[in-house]
Amino acid sequence: MNDFQTIQHIMQHRRSIFPVSYTKKEITKDTLIQLLECANTAPTHKLTQPWRFVVFREEGLTRLANQLADLYKALTPAEQFLQKKYENTREKILQSGAVIAIVASYSGAVPQWEELAATACAVQNLWLAASAAGIGGYWSSPGAIKHVGDFLALAGNEECLGFFYMGYHDEPPRTGNRKPVTEKISWED
């Protein structure tokens, strides 16, 4: 398999894999650094490199689980509060090998949408690298992300865009369900 076929295969089989499917196998710090080095190669206008990552592992997962569950409880009107959702918020974090807070740091040097796009490219690189390493993941953006600034020690020009949940898994590879690309192309020859 050549490089193109390899990356094409990885892209076609990258799927959202949820914590219920994660095994207990540890994602080491070295592996996380290698994956985040892949994220760090994302394209960025004017080299602003707006992505920042806060990695939660081991006891950090417990702190994050408690924080997000407590935020859900505090922000949800009593008549809408669901104990099951509160518990699920904690459980999916605690089932993960790592959870990464995705942070965009706005430089002011380029439009904000470009910083968001660059950060999303970094997450896609992370996701593809994780998939190639047998690590599943998914990007979640719960409503509580608007309230985690102090917890994540975000600067005034930073914003949490969500959390990337990760874990080793045993799910078989599968391709995505997409409309044919020919329906999305117009040609100007």
From TrEMBL:
Cofactor(s) the protein requires to work: FMN
Entry keyword set: Flavoprotein, FMN, NAD, NADP, Oxidoreductase
Origin superkingdom: Bacteria
Transmembrane segments annotated in the record for this chain: none
Family from the record: Belongs to the nitroreductase family.
InterPro entries, sorted: NAD(P)H_nitroreductase, Nitroreductase, Nitroreductase-like, YdjA-like
Protein name: Putative NAD(P)H nitroreductase
Chain positions recorded as FMN binding sites: R14, R15, S16, H45, W139, S140, S141
Originating species: Parapedobacter koreensis
Cofactor: binding details: Binds 1 FMN per subunit.
Domain Nitroreductase: 13-168
Record flagged with keyword Lyase: no
One GO molecular-function entry: oxidoreductase activity
UniProt xrefs under Gene3D superfamilies: NADH Oxidase
The protein's Enzyme Commission number: 1.-.-.-
